[in-house]
Amino acid sequence: MVEEIQNKLQLEVDKFKAVQKDYHKALAQRQQLDGQLNENTAVKQELDLLQSGAEVFKLIGPVLVKQDLEEAKQNVAKRMDYIRNELKRTDDMIASLDKKQDVHREAINKLQQQFQQLQMKAAMKA
């Protein structure tokens, strides 16, 4: 009985660690997306300062290519929309992983309590 609970406990701890790993990956991804959104917001603000007809260049590899101002604004707006959608998806994933962590924590606590109770019973019998 003690070994069975120990095995369940180890299995639950392993699951918890896996969820924790995914949670930390999701947090890192969220930080990266946040940085990209801030970067694109700064670009949008700079583009908004320009007058129509102003020359805008886009860096493609090692080359600067002339781009239409309106096209540049649309590209930045689309990129920002995409990043916002990814942020929402990542936030939802983080919330889901957070709940999974809580479930595993509770299961670990219950198994630990059962394990301690069995150990105390075994100690009393000895």
Automatic annotation (TrEMBL):
Gene3D superfamilies: 1.10.287.370. Keywords: Chaperone, Coiled coil. The keyword Chaperone applies. It comes from the Eukaryota. This is Prefoldin subunit 6. Residues 66-121 form a coiled coil. Heterohexamer of two PFD-alpha type and four PFD-beta type subunits. Belongs to the prefoldin subunit beta family. The keyword Chaperone applies. It comes from Periplaneta americana.
